[in-house]
Amino acid sequence: xxxxxxxxxxxxxxxxxxxxxxxxxxxxxxxxxxxxxxxxxxxxxxxxxxxxxxxxxxxxxxxxxxxxxxxxxxxxxxxxxxxxxxxxxxxxxxxxxxxxxxxxxxxxxxxxxxxxxxxxxxxxxxxxxxxxxxxxxxxxxxxxxxxxxxxxxxxxxxxxxxxxxxxxxxxxxxxxxxxxxxxxxxxxxxxxxxxxxxxxxxxxxxxxxxxxxxxxxxxxxxxxxxxxxxxxxxxxxxxxxxxxxxxxxxxxxxxxxxxxxxxxxxxxxxxxxxxxxxxxxxxxxxxxxxxxxxxxxxxxxxxxxxxxxxxxxxxxxxxxxxxxxxxxxxxxxxxxxxxxxxxxxxxxxxxxxxxxxxxxxxxxxxxxxxxxxxxxxxxxxxxxxxxxxxxxxxxxxxxxxxxxxxxxxxxxxxxxxxxxxxxxxxxxxxxxxxxxxxxxxxxxxxxxxxxxxxxxxxxxxxxxxxxxxxxxxxxxxxxxxxxxxxx
Length: 487
Fold this sequence. Notes:
This protein has 487 residues and is of the alpha+beta class. It has helices at 5-20, 50-54, 62-79, 91-96, 106-116, 126-139, 161-188, 196-223, 226-240, 245-257, 294-299, 358-361, 408-419; strands at 3-4, 33-44, 89-90, 118-119, 140-146, 153-159, 259-261, 268-270, 272-275, 286-291, 307-308, 316-318, 335-336, 340-352, 365-366, 392-406, 426-429, 432-440, 443-447, 450-452, 455-470.
């Protein structure tokens, strides 16, 4: 029987969502987590993440170093956004981030919050000050680097070895959890003869997948300093609730130290990277398979309100500068017969060197309208769904690669759609970019699917979504603090 594209899209969406965010007694989802879809996906080549894998200043020559810093600028710009609980990270927002007057950049709003917040002041002892400085330096460290062209030395802030180990072990745990959730979701939605393998796999191997999750959690604790980092952050939060002045000053200094510049663009930007940096070569990719049989299962899955853009139909659309002509024939209601989709999925932790989200959990600061803070709303009212200028931030980027769709009807619809799209445009389905050009600042790349009979293949990897964290009510000062306590 034929199936509407939108039903197939819902099945794909449910499978991805349950893999990344869903959970059970073994892998418990966070109540403050929500998923944002990217429409269409953001393609990345392995070279575009060379700085994340190998670093910027380890480059062998100036030309390579300049390329790496440009790649760092591109990633930082694309990730410098505040998630929206009401909609996906669409192409308009993606392209707008490169504009000088882009609204609501995460880094800029965060800077203004630091700059104009009034903080509680209670003099710390010398011992508390020393301990606070020690703990800050354990998480982040300052390095002096030399520009290969000018020989100018500059101090930059980077994640410490402890913080990198923490992020790497957390990424490994997320990979194990994603595999566990993927196998569970595949078994839960399995139907017919094709579903026997997924069902049998879960029946026989669930304990093994659970053990991998436990082993990754134990490795995060023993080798990734999980307890130590959590205790450090708890001490910083507890201590600075009484006196934020010194901590706030250090956060502003670290924000400035984390800014670097690229010769090509000529503006400073906040250094941002991914862990694992060599995600294109890492082993943490989970294979996802979806068929038309999953459409009924997906209807039973609850679409949480934090699944941003859950109500958006997954039909065909054009993007970028290409002008799509008459294309009303192929929409999310278009009927498709047999359908099989498979791809690989991986998660990368987003690390922002100058960004300290612990500040938002602190209850020793306020903002006053008219005293520097000129926005209509506070950062977040803490409601569900929240309202505000800074309701959360992306913590993980979700990558997909080697997409393959087997369906004669789907391929026919794709071919008909691309034939009506200008050369510079392209076609996407849901969060997947299937073909077309895409821009990175001053550069331009082509991204093209290949068709072989009834099979459509999309090479390479792309970001298809983000896992985001809600910050709660901010500011949210302690009730015993009076207005006169803030300065």
